[in-house]
Structures are given as C-alpha cells and as structure tokens.
C-alpha cells in the first residue's frame, strides 16, 4: 500500500511531463501555468519528507522515489530550458553532472555502509534551483520584473552552491570512510 508521503512524491513525478508539455507549447499563459505546476512540484519535495518523518511513513520506496523525483524534476526542466534557449547549457551541464556524481557517490557510500544524508548545503542548492527555475520558466517580463534576468542570476548562484555542496559531500564521504575503515585503506 502506498503511504501519503509516497503519493505526494508520485504527484511530483506526474507533474514533470505537465511542466515540460506546457513549456513545449510555449506562450505567456503556458509559461505561467508551467511555473505554477513546477512550484507545486517543488513544494511536494518538502511536503513528502515532512509527512514521512512526522507521521511515521518513511519507507524504502519513498527513500528511492524521493531523490529520483527530485532529479527528474530539476534536470528535466533545466534540460528543457536549455532546449528553449532560456538557460546556459554549460551551467545546466555542471548542475546535472553534480546530480549524477552525487548519486554515484551515494551508491558507493551505501556499498561501504556509510550513510550520506542530505546536508544544509544540498538543501540550499535545491532551494536556489527551484528559485531560479520558476522565473526562468516564466521567462517573460512579469510583475515589472525581467524574469529571465533574475532567474539566470539565481541559476548561477545555484550552480556555485551545487559545486560547493558536491565538494562538501566528498569531504563528508572521505571523513566517514576513514572513520569506518581507518587510514590504511584511504590511499588505496
């Protein structure tokens, strides 16, 4: 049986094609609708974890689906924004590469018996990515603001935070690896 937390995560996954479809048929109205759908998906990222932890609904399926949904949402929309010419490809490549590298590192950590929980830098990176993507999706001038300009500035900040958090994850992994296995294997 699916828990409420898992259903919230699945909602995030279902919203991804909707956001991409609205962006594909790009016009000012669809961009606003896509930004709203993306914003709702972003809120579910916080909501599913909150519900799971505070209502005893943490499951293995949820532990698998939540980070997968996050990566599909962020990476899928960023790639679409590159396709539309609304986000610099090189920045998106760095962000997507970071996601893949950290996924690989977490897989190695699991094999080594090391728990790599999300840290505050990774969470800040996600908040910045969501804060960047919403105005990039809107793209047009909205509420007197050049949404593309502000979205791009925040995207650069999120890229720097992605790099910093990646370095921090490697430091955390190295420290935990040395604690678990000692310094003898560190150089191997």
Automatic annotation (TrEMBL):
| Chief location of this protein within or outside the cell | membrane
The source's domain of life comes to Bacteria
GO MF term (any one): CDP-diacylglycerol-glycerol-3-phosphate 3-phosphatidyltransferase activity
TM region positions: 6-25, 32-51, 71-96, 126-143, 149-170
Secretion signal, residue range per the UniProt entry: none
Reaction catalysed by this chain?
a CDP-1,2-diacyl-sn-glycerol + sn-glycerol 3-phosphate = a 1,2-diacyl-sn-glycero-3-phospho-(1'-sn-glycero-3'-phosphate) + CMP + H(+)
E.C. numbers: 2.7.8.5
Q: Name one GO cellular component term.
A: plasma membrane
Q: Sorted alphabetically, which keywords does the UniProt record give?
A: Cell membrane, Lipid biosynthesis, Lipid metabolism, Membrane, Phospholipid biosynthesis, Phospholipid metabolism, Transferase, Transmembrane, Transmembrane helix
Pathway the protein acts in: Phospholipid metabolism; phosphatidylglycerol biosynthesis; phosphatidylglycerol from CDP-diacylglycerol: step 1/2
How does this protein lie in the membrane? Answer: Multi-pass membrane protein
GO annotation terms (biological process): glycerophospholipid biosynthetic process
Q: What class of enzyme is it?
A: transferase
InterPro entries reported for this sequence:
CDP-alcohol_PTase-I, CDP-OH_P_trans, CDP-OH_PTrfase_TM_dom, CDP_ALCOHOL_P_TRANSF_CS, Phosphatidylglycerol_P_synth
Which PANTHER family would you find in this protein's record?
Answer: CDP-DIACYLGLYCEROL--GLYCEROL-3-PHOSPHATE 3-PHOSPHATIDYLTRANSFERASE 1, CHLOROPLASTIC (PTHR14269:SF62), CDP-DIACYLGLYCEROL--GLYCEROL-3-PHOSPHATE 3-PHOSPHATIDYLTRANSFERASE-RELATED (PTHR14269)
Purpose: This protein catalyzes the committed step to the synthesis of the acidic phospholipids.
**What is the name of the protein in this document?**
CDP-diacylglycerol--glycerol-3-phosphate 3-phosphatidyltransferase
């Amino acid at each position: 049986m699916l828990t409420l937390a898992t259903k919230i995560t699945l909602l995030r996954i279902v919203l991804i094609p909707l956001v991409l479809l609205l962006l594909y048929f790009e016009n000012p109205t669809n961009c606003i609708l896509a930004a709203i759908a993306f914003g709702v998906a972003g809120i579910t990222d916080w909501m599913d974890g909150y519900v799971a932890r505070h209502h005893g609904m943490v499951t293995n399926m949820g532990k698998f689906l939540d980070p997968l949904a996050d990566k599909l949402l962020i990476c899928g929309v960023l790639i679409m924004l590159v396709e539309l010419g609304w986000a610099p490809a090189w920045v998106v490549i760095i962000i997507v590469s970071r996601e893949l590298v950290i996924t690989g590192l977490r897989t190695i950590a699991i094999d080594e018996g090391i728990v790599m929980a999300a840290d505050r830098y990774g969470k800040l990176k996600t908040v910045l990515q969501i804060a960047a993507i919403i105005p990039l999706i809107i793209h047009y001038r909205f509420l007197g603001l050049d949404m593309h300009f502000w979205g791009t500035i925040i995207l650069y900040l999120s890229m720097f935070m992605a790099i910093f958090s990646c370095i921090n994850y490697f430091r955390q992994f190295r420290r935990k690896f040395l604690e678990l296995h000692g310094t003898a294997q560190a150089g191997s």
